[in-house]
C-alpha cells in the first residue's frame, strides 16, 4: 500500500514538473518569436513574487539601463531618508548650474531655476516622468553614482553598474553602456524592494506610488494588458545614433495579476535598428505573453 502511495506522489510530481517545464518552454518560444522583430538583443526576466516561478531569456547579459537606473536611484534616496540623512519634504535649491539641454519637465516648469524644490517632488519627477534634471540633482545630494552602486550591491544586486549621470551620458554615445544591468537582476531588485519591510512604511508607500504613476512608455509593458491592470514600472530609452541604432528601449516593473499575485518583469531591447513603434510593440507583446501565462 505504501509503495502505491509513494508511486502516485512521484507520478504527480513528475507530471506537475513536466507541465511547468512545458509551459515555460512555450513562453520562451513565444518570446523568441516576438524578439526577432527587434533585430537586436532582447533580454527578458519574469518572476512571480508569490510562487517564485522564474523565466529568463537572455536574462544574464549586460545591457544598458538608460532611465531604468532612476529606480535604484530612488531606492537609494529613500534609504538615506530612512537613515535620517534627508527628509521627503526637505527643500533643495535648483540652480542654473543644475540645468542642461535634456528631457526635463522640471526644467520646463522652472526655466530660470533659482527655486526650492522638495525631495518628494524631485523623486516624483525623476520616476513618474523620467526627468533627467531631477535625476542628476538627486545624484548630487547623494554624493554621486558610486553611492547608488555601493548600496545596490550591498542589498544583494551584484550584476549592476551605475557610473554615469544623465548629463554624462548626454556627452557621448558610448557612456551609456557604463550604466548596465542584467534583466535577471532587475527582477531580483524588484522582488527585494517590493517586500514591505525593505524600507520604512512611508518610504515603501511613496516608492510604489510614484512607480504606479509612471506616465512614460504607455505602449510598452502596459500596452496590451487589460484596462485597469495595476502596473508599477520604470522605463528607459536612449536616442538613435547616425547609423539608425537605438541602444536601449527598456521597461521593468511589477504587474498585478487577476488573482492578486505580482509578476516582476524586465524587458530590455538593446542595439535595435527598427523604429520606436516596433520596439515598443516587442515589449508590449512579451509582457502580454508573460501575463497570459501567469494568469492561467
UniProtKB/TrEMBL annotation:
Keywords: Signal
Chain ranges of the Beta-lactamase class A catalytic domain: 43-269
Position of the signal peptide: 1-22
EC number: 3.5.2.6
Single GO molecular function: beta-lactamase activity
Pfam families on file: Beta-lactamase2
Enzyme class: hydrolase
Reactions that this protein is recorded to catalyse: a beta-lactam + H2O = a substituted beta-amino acid
Any Gene Ontology biological process: response to antibiotic
The organism's place on the tree of life at top rank: Bacteria
Protein family (similarity comment): Belongs to the class-A beta-lactamase family.
UniProt-recorded name of the protein: beta-lactamase
Organism: Mucilaginibacter ginsenosidivorax
Gene designation: bla
